[in-house]
Amino acid sequence: MNRLLPCVLIAMMVLAGCQPGAATGTAAASQNEAGTIPGNAPSGGNGSTEGDGNALPPDPQEVTFQAADGQRLSGYYYPAAVNPAPLVMLMHWAGGDKGDWYEVAPWLQNRGLHNPFPNPGTDAWWDPTWFPALPANVSYGVFIFSLRVCNPSPEGCTGWTPAEWLLDVRAAMTTAAALEGVDGRRIITVGSSVGADGAPDGCAWLNEQQPGSCQGALSLSPGSYLELPYPQVVETLGRSQPPVAAWCLADENEFGMCQAAEDSANPAYRDRMIPSGQHGTRLLREGLEPLPMQLILDFLAETTGP
């Protein structure tokens, strides 16, 4: 059987619907016998952490930067409550843009910030009332950005430009790693669909430029969308010393890509099937078992360390 499931991938590309750049600013889970991620129950709500005296203000900072081909891009940086802090890079799917993360970003920042932007829609990922709580003493810096030709949901990306999106991802990684308040040795990537491939692709690329910078990549429904085979990138991450973590979450229809990556021999690789989870960002909704939002917290706890 072809484990890469090409027909499913083509369908998902329809449904789901990076060289360095210069930045300018305004302003632990255990492995079970199958090598999968153990599930955890959601804890409900969201806390906030007091932070330290060196922390930057919590308000999101607009950041503009440039891809290697000259394309101008923009994003928002949400500083953590501690300085320096781990940074979580969030990468969107083809059905939207950085606005997909308007509620997820302050949730991970965990500083009591209310989303200051209008949400593009009313789907579950724009309703923070059900998000699991972070520990009160945990706060991450967060960076969100839009890929080129991509607009807020429901319009999403108006073209399919994977080679150029890879340039965007690489530029975003370099830009975010240099931001004030970021611990450049504790960068983590999380992505959905197109972004699910951008997350490991960007992580592996940053480690080529700045060894030891990116500590892990979590993917929601990867599909080798950015022209680099997902299992191959997972293998590349596994060749680092120590191996870089890569987690894959997908429903039963797309889990073949996660299974293909099991052959990568990356000892830090984990995968988990999410029954009836649907594609990409639709995995971020309540009632799923295991709950992907909780698995994201588990992943961050494991990869950022104490």
Top CATH class: Alpha Beta
Low-confidence stretches: 1-45
Strand order of the largest sheet: 1-2-3-5-4-6-7-8-9
Q: Provide the β-strand percentage band.
A: 15-25%
- Count of individual beta strands: 9
CATH topology: Rossmann fold
* Alpha carbon gap, first and last residue: 42 Å
Radius of gyration: 17 Å
CATH architecture: 3-Layer(aba) Sandwich
CATH superfamily: Alpha/Beta hydrolase fold, catalytic domain
Description:
- The protein is of the alpha/beta class.
- It has a single domain, classed as Alpha/Beta hydrolase fold, catalytic domain (Rossmann fold, 3-Layer(aba) Sandwich).
- It has helices spanning 6-15, 104-109, 162-177, 194-209, 230-238, 255-261, 292-304, and strands at residues 23-26, 61-66, 72-78, 85-91, 141-145, 182-192, 214-220, 245-250, 269-273.
- Strands 1-2-3-5-4-6-7-8-9 form a 9-stranded mixed sheet, with helices on both faces.
- Strand 8, helix 6 and strand 9 (269-273) form a beta-alpha-beta unit.
- Helix 4 runs parallel beside helix 5.
- The longest helix has 16 residues, at 162-177.
Set out the fold topology.
Elements (H helix, E strand, L loop, with lengths): L5 H10 L7 E4 L34 E6 L5 E7 L6 E7 L12 H6 L31 E5 L16 H16 L4 E11 L1 H16 L4 E7 L9 H9 L6 E6 L4 H7 L7 E5 L18 H13 L2
Parallel strand pairs: 4-5, 4-6, 6-7, 7-8, 8-9
Antiparallel strand pairs: 1-2, 2-3, 3-5
